[in-house]
Structures are given as C-alpha cells and as structure tokens.
Amino acid sequence: MQEKWCCVLTVLPYLLFGTAIVFVVLFFYSLFKQKSRIAALFALMCLSLSVYVFASAFEFLSNDLEAKKFFITLEYFGFSFLPALWLIISYKHYYNKNMTIKAVLLTCAIPFVTMFFNATKDYHTLYYTDIKLIEHGTYSTVYLSRGSWYYIFYLYSLVCLVISTAFFYKAWKVKKYSVRIQSFWLLIGSLSPLVGSIIYFFTGPRNGIDIIPYSFLVPNVIFFIVLFKYDFLEIKDIVRSYSFGQIKEGIFVIDEKNRIIDFNNSAAETFDWLDSLNVGNSILKYEEGKKIIEKSAGNKGDFFEVGFNKKGEEKVYEFKVSSLTEKGRIIGRLFLFQDITEQKLAIERLNYMATHDSLSEVYNRGKMMQEIEKALSLFERKGGDLSLMMIDIDYFKTINDKYGHVFGDMVIRGVARAFKSVLKNEGVIGRYGGEEFIILLSGKGRQEAFEISENVREHIMKQQFTICSDIVNVTISIGLVTLECPGKAVAPQELINRADTALYTAKNSGRNNVKFISL
Length: 519
What we know:
Blueprint: H1 2-32, H2 37-61, H3 65-79, H4 82-95, H5 101-119, E1 128-136, E2 139-146, H6 148-174, H7 182-207, H8 217-229, H9 233-239, E3 250-255, E4 260-263, H10 265-270, H11 287-297, E5 303-310, E6 313-326, E7 329-339, H12 341-355, H13 365-382, E8 386-393, H14 396-403, H15 405-423, E9 428-433, E10 436-442, H16 446-461, E11 464-467, E12 470-473, E13 476-483, H17 492-508, E14 514-518
Parallel strand pairs: 13-14
Antiparallel strand pairs: 1-2, 3-4, 3-7, 5-6, 6-7, 8-10, 8-13, 9-10, 11-12
C-alpha cells in the first residue's frame, strides 16, 4: 500500500507541470492571436493559473520546509486572483459588457490582501497559524493550520465560483442548452475547481495534499476546446456591440471559416438551420446557407438579393454583408437581411402598369414604341427579317354604339386574348389606341408574316361574343409591312405609318382582309 502511495506521489507533480505548460501555451495564444478585452482577461487568468500550478508542482517536489513556504507564497501570486478573474470573465460573457472600474477594484480587494498576507505569513498568523512538514517516504507535504483570513478568502472564492457558474449557466440557458456553444464548456470548466475547493476545505489539512491544482486539469482541456474548436471569443465581443437581438431585421454572423457564430430571433424564424444546436457548424452544410454565400461571393457590392421557396411560397430577401475586423484583420462577416417580397411584387406591379394597357393586358403604346425601336436598331446593325402588323377591329364604333362601352371593352379584351392564343411567343403585341393593335414580328419575312396575319384574322373571325341573347361576330382588318432592305435605317413612326397605309387599303377593300406593303 505504501509503495502504491509513493507511485501516486511520483506522478502528481508531473501532472501539474504538464497542466502548467498548457496554461502557458493558452496564455501566449490568447495574448497574441486574440485581440479583444475578454481575450486579454482570459490570457491574464491563464498566466495566473500557470504561476499557481507551476509553484504547486515545485512545492510538491521540494522537501525543505523553507522552500515549501517560498513556493506557497509564489502560488498565491497567481491563485489569489483566480476567483476574481473568473468572475469578471463570466460577467462579461453573460452581460456582454465590461465591469466598471469601481466594481473591478472591489472584486480584487480581497485577492490583493490575501496575496499580501501570504507574502508576510512569517510575521503573523492571519492566514496560517502554523505550517508543519509531513513525510511520505521520499516525498513530503505540509500541514497548514488555517487562520481567520483563510476562511474569509475561502468564502470569497466560493462565492465568486458559484456566481461565475451561475452566469455561465444562464448564458447556456439562453442558448437553449446547446452543448456545442462556448457557454456550456465554460460552465463545465467552472464546476471542477468549485467541487475541488469544497473537497479540499474538508480533507486537505489531514494529509497535506492540496487537490485544488489538480482540479484545473478539467478546465485545462475545456479551455483548449473553447479556443481551438469554438475559437470565436473575439467575435462574440464585437458582435454583441451591435445589440442586434432586438432588431426586427434578420441578422446572423459567421466567422472567417464560414462557421455560424450568432444570430437574432428574426433570423432564426426565417431559417430553421439557424439554431443553437448548429452554432459552430459551417453555413455551407445547409442549402440555403450555401446559396447565400455563393450570391455574396458573386456580388460586387454590399447588397444582394436571394430568392427562396419557403413553405411553397416564393420569397425574396435583400442581404447586406459587412466585414467584422479587429486590428485590420477580417475575423468574420455580419449578414443583415429583410423580406422584400412585397416590395418586389409592388415594383413588378408598377412596372407592369407602366408598360401594359390595363384593359387588354398587352403592351401599351409607349412600351410598344420602345420594342419597335429596339427591333429596328437590331435590324439596322445585323439585318434579318422584320415585319409589323397594324390591326383594326372592323365596325367597332357600331358595336360600341349598339351594345355599349362595357361590351366594347369585353370585345377588346377578347381580341387581345385571341392574339396571344394564336401567336404564343412569335410576336410582340401592343394596343396602339382605341380599337387598334400592333403586332411586331421579328425574324419573320414577307411570306411567313403574311401567313401569320391570315391565321390571326381567321382566328378572330371564329370568335363569338355573347350579350343577352345576341351572338356577335367580330372581324379585323390588317395592314402588314415588311422591311426588305437589310441595314436600312428606318424610324419607328415611319414603319408604323407604312403599316397604317396598308391597313387603310385593307379597310377600303371591304375589311376582314390582310393587305401587304414593303419598305
């Protein structure tokens, strides 16, 4: 049994050395790689832990009482401030703001006094009333008889650890108890020293072995997870300055590796993959997220639009992306977005109203003139075939006078629908005015345009419009013009005038026919 005990004692100091070395690495990493305030506090705490654990290891290895006293004093240069630093870090983590200077000074008052009392323990009995050497074969420990200030500092430390643990728990609760977030791991890291300090308070003096340094083995692993798996301490600090939790627009944040860092309620309501369980995951794992990143990468400005199908309904969102920088280095991106589906629909309706005739639902005169101008410009540059039909509803005034304007409007709508039915996508249809329509046939020469015109005329002739018990048949007259001189510059109005001349000929030839003219 004695041999086993000696083997255990042999291993213990080297566990402490390993733990202390890790804390030194974390100190330098936090100090130089991270640049935020919370990272600076974290670095200071890692430094304090490394001093405390290193000194504990050397205290364990020394066999001389005076050497052990020296290392105990050195331990408290680090240990005295650990509860205060952990409390300050947990406060900042939960409230996303710094403690006031006054609060920090009050929090650190007892640690400063404790460090001073330990450094001068040979001259008073406030912290330890007696220190004795306990032999364990080749190793020795010390029996520490506790003074009044020891109990004050212990109570202070216990309160700090309990409050810190509560802060981390509340932060974890806000994130719906996800195990893949920083708060959860920091909570786990708080429990080990808390439990260790309670156990040592009741068992430590009996065998002289201080188990508190070993209780930091768990935080040692936890801190590695927090920094290297969830390495976004600094991003949290910057993101929260936006106070986006209350903003009605959706906001989410990713780091430089496209991992989800944070988001507000509006964003979570829009995209179900923005869930606390997915924090730390790459946004590229999700189809919608991948689409957002691709659109962002292909966009030259800060704003871009992305369409999604949400529950069978097409939605359009406008995104604004901003880079999050620290000391000139990009550490992540913030995406702010809003649903602009209604605005897009409203703009489309306005555009439609600006370009379409409200009665016939085909292009209006202004839009039709633009289409003719574009077609003529293309014809002038590249040649090809181009034809234009000018159409007039025969005896429309008589129909209007006999059956009324409501029936006349019905005829205009019916004729326009018939044009669409025959042409499908072969021509551009517009209402020129009153009962007159224009059909632009790009790529159609004389023969093909004439055949289309005849098809249109015959189709309209078969249409029947009913009012009360009367059945009304409607016919149309068509004037057709075709450009036959490639490269020739022709003005839109000139083309229309030629078609109108052909239409006049058709009407004077008994109506319900097609007359052709070239240009």
